[in-house]
User: Which sequence fits this backbone?
């Protein structure tokens, strides 16, 4: 096993201009691990209720995802999220959140996962993210995500966490909010001073930017005719990126750039259908072929 | 002379989070021609009042811009625009527009300009843009801009115009509005069906996309720490692009891609200061060096 992910497994009910889906498989750890599974062996730590169906378990197993860390609470109900997207697909409107078993989530990392060289802390309470880091044995590369709720509610735990991660992956508005600086470049510098050597700012349909102390990399989003459901795009992106890094064992900047493109590829496939539908019938050939399309999409000659 | 531009020359009063400027030189034709002047010989057609100072004339002359087509109306007042930008610098809030002499603008193209192979019709009434095309002698490459005001007010003239241009350059929201399609890729296809062989969609701080029948090119914006004044970014972009095309005489896709990067370079310098301040003290060396930075900003390895 080379990647550990800690996050949510959920049932999502989603409405977009293109249709709707009721109580389909979702959650940050689900999207992340499915995307990463194309490149690496993933161990998943999350919690579900007794209502979590066997078909979802076997679908994740089919992708080679290790579920020893998936805690099934007897008599419990799985986390549910209900949301709607308007034509501006960058913005999710949360209609309802039922935390259920997720409200008592206290991740215990199985022994078999503790040596994982790559760790992804999906968007959960930063105090829990810190507790995960206490259980693992000197991972080589740690990345984390967060959201405005934690930036506002637990800024100190988040700052403590940032001292201990290599890569911080967040949305553009969250980057500005966290840093309290309207300029994105200024916000990036402020965030890098908090600890992580690399920051990735996700901009939805505008792609993503990667900042480190000396350079910036701009990755476009793949121009899709129709984005059916943007849910999970950020976690699929992180999964593709981390999966590729773990696969190659190279965390240098050039490889991070390639990883960002693989992440963008995975995210672009994911939004082509509801839930994990598209990722489940995705092949490595399709991934490679879209990577090459990203090359053509961005190519211009030297002067 | 190899480029003709028809558009506005104005006095702008602008407020941004970084400061303000009162009655400074602005206008689409001014920004366009100054940016294009680094690469090509530009003839400018516009109208100003008697209040237009000699210092502005000599500044434009210094850049080698031909002003035979700049009509100075005796007793008239120059077009004035007053606007404000919030932290979201992609959105201009117009506080006041005084058209003055611009309200009777009826462009007459000087004989010496009528053979220009490259023509840029900046954002003016599409009926006037059409009248310009009636006066020129079979230009090799015509590009035009427009705005929501004309999309809503003169859709038929605009459609007539689009049949006669090679390149249409507009903002993202305008592209969606014109096509009546929320998906940008879908909107692009609808617009290309109206006539132009190439469409460029400007996305402000997110860069620009170029669409033709068979491919898409994504150009990033240069990540600046501080954007002092976004006024004129779109016209500087078009000026850099068209100037480069006219300079090289090559309108193939590869060269259009290079042109878009030169356009992005010019736009990125322009927003570093109010009015045309930065473009006036810009050198070709700086332009080339930032072009190379765009290369580094977007580079990732093949698989």
Assistant:
């Amino acid at each position: 096993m080379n990647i550990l992910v800690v996050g949510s497994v959920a049932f999502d009910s989603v409405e977009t201009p293109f249709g709707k889906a009721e109580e389909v498989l979702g959650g940050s750890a689900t999207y992340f691990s499915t995307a990463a599974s194309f490149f690496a062996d993933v161990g998943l730590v999350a919690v579900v209720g007794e209502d979590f169906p066997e078909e979802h378990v076997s679908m994740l197993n089919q992708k080679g995802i290790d579920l020893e860390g998936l805690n099934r609470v007897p008599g419990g109900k799985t986390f549910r999220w209900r949301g709607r997207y308007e034509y501006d697909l960058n913005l999710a409107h949360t209609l309802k959140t039922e935390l259920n078993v997720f409200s008592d989530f206290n991740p215990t990392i199985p022994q078999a996962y503790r040596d994982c060289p790559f760790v992804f802390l999906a968007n959960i309470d930063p105090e829990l993210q810190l507790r995960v880091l206490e259980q693992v044995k000197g991972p080589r590369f740690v990345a984390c995500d967060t959201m405005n709720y934690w930036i506002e509610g637990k800024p100190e735990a988040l700052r403590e966490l940032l001292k201990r991660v290599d890569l911080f992956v967040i949305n553009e508005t969250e980057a500005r909010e966290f840093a309290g600086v309207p300029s994105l470049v200024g916000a990036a510098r402020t965030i890098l001073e908090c600890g992580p050597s690399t920051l990735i700012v996700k901009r939805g349909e505008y792609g993503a930017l990667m900042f480190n102390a000396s350079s910036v990399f701009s990755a476009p989003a793949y121009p899709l005719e129709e984005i059916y459901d943007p849910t999970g795009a950020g976690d699929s992106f992180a999964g593709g990126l981390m999966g590729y890094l773990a696969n190659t064992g190279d965390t240098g900047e050039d490889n991070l750039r390639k990883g960002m493109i693989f992440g963008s590829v995975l995210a672009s496939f994911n939004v082509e259908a509801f839930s994990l539908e598209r990722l489940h019938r995705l092949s490595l050939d399709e991934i490679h072929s879209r990577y090459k399309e990203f090359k053509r999409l961005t190519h211009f000659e030297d002067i």
Observations:
- The domain at 3-298 of chain B is CATH 3.40.1190.20 (UDP-N-acetylmuramoyl-L-alanine:D-glutamate ligase).
- Chain B has one domain: 3-298.
- Chain B touches chain A through 41 residues (CB under 8 Å).
- The longest strand of chain B covers residues 19-26.
